[in-house]
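Late entry, evening session. Most of the bench is empty. Finally got around to the prediction I had been postponing all week. Sequence below, unchanged from the version circulated by S.P.
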Amino acid sequence: MKTFLKLLADISYHSGLIGLPEYIERCAIADWLAEESHEYRDPRPELENYEESDEAPSKEDLSTSNKEDDNNDGYLELKRLNTWVFTIGDRDCYPSVPHGHYQKKTTPCPKLNPYTGRVHKKNQAEVANMRLSKAEMITLWSDEEFREHCREQIMWYTRFAPRYKFPNARFGRDVLPKWK
């Protein structure tokens, strides 16, 4: 079973379906599941930096300001709607390429799919009260700097994982949504 799980993880990673953090997590879980003497501790708490709580950030916390974070260089990291951080060079493809991390790029969850406006937790469930409104989607996709940042991340990810199919891009990876 361990060999099968690691083979699936290898295939998924090399085909660009999952990023490096997901690959490492899957291998650690496969090792833990295959261990009969239980020498390994459960790796899930160590792999998960984000502890889910019942209190998700409220919609009021999500300001529609378009200010960049003063601590970043403006190219590799871009903060939009005063909440979501988009990073060029993010190897993770869940829930989309590109995607936003909540407050800072090292926060593993929740994540924003900018194509749909949906926010996802670690277990891939949607956080409904954080979903972007139509006005926020218009604000986000009307920003030329954000659109250019998305193009850069898509180009970077294409070089990183050439076989990745960009399932969120209905009209091709180079065609970004237009919200009006």
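Two things to note before I forget:
Residues 59-160 form one domain.
The chain has two domains: 2-47, 59-160.
Will write this up properly tomorrow.
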